[in-house]
Amino acid sequence: MNKFSIAKLGPGLLFAGAAIGVSHLVQSTRAGAEFGWGFVWALLLINLFKYPFFQYGPRFALATNTTLLDGYHKLGKGYLWIYFILNLASMFTIQTAVTIVTAGLASQLFGITENLALWGVIITLGSMLLLLIGKYQMLDRIIKIVMVILALSSVAAFSIAFGKTGNPLSWQQVFPDSSALLFFIAFLGWMPAPLDVSIMHSIWSVEKNKIQKKLITVKEGLFDFNVGYIATVVLALCFLGLGALVMFNSGMTFSNNGNAFAGQLIQLYTSNLGASTYTIIALAAFTTMLSTTITTLDASPRAMSISVELLFNRKNKHLYLIWIIILALGTGFIFLFLLSEMGLLVQIATVLSFLTSPLYAFLNYRLVTSDIMPKEHRPKKGLQILSLIGITILSGFTLFYILQL
Predict the structure, then answer these.
(1) How far is CA 291 from its chain centroid?
(2) Cα 98 to Cα 18: distance, rounded to the nearest angstrom
(3) pLDDT tens for residues 205-243?
């Protein structure tokens, strides 16, 4: 990869930064701890079937220099209204879910206080200030450093754990019974990320183009996306493997308490890399979740701002500021008055994401195969077939889950 290509990297790594958070540190590790290697099939398949719909974000953005939200609006105003309502209903819960994990890690790392509500408010306000001061350029720079730290520490921990295990590995794959169905759906919901992150990716792609001297081509954008996507899959397998190698059949289970969970998570690393690495590993995990917190805090206000401008045909340069304040205040309110167990909030957010996956899959597919998309940049036949299979699978799982309620 030449220097020019490296300079073009950005939105794909932002996607990875948003994805490698709760779905990896929490859900994948817990899946390995409770089911061993039994969910590898689900992890690989859900990443395969979601791939086209995530890819359509940068593909559409770079082919048209507009976001997926602009595309939804052109398909029909009703589609954009549906997105606006869904995002408004879920963005506070999702932001709280990722910030809870970050707060737990901050408590473990800095040890100033174990009050998660206080940590949550501090992290939210700090992230908001960073975004308002540094804007997209800051996100673009920070995420490259974070991804290197996370990748090296995660792969190293998994490799050492794999080498140390004295137990025979069982690769028997399992399908969860009714008692584990909620967790399974939550696991699929944010693996590797909620499908609406494709919308954020399209927004970041347009923002990246604004600061480039030369526009990023569709080919370059897809390369950037593939780098980020492959990273999310590899690291998901590492986290699942850590849970399987260190905790499966050990009698140890993850706590739903934020502080306790964070301590157990860091212990997964230090038990393999050594106690002397505690600070480095805790910092890497905290930085990873902080990047997720920052990217989600940036993404929803951008999306809501664009949605409002399109729905009401009115430009307002202060909309991003208004929406980021609304999201920060709503998240802070949940922390101060409605905070319950971390596990419950994570499950609510992930299940909501899973139930809306078929809708976003359909919209993204319809958009990139419509006349709105330049013909030369529409997906090839093979990718279209995979898309149709993916829509069917996601819809089937969603219907199956609803019938089990």
Answers:
(1) 10
(2) 10
(3) 998 888 776 788 899 899 999 988 998 999 899 889 888
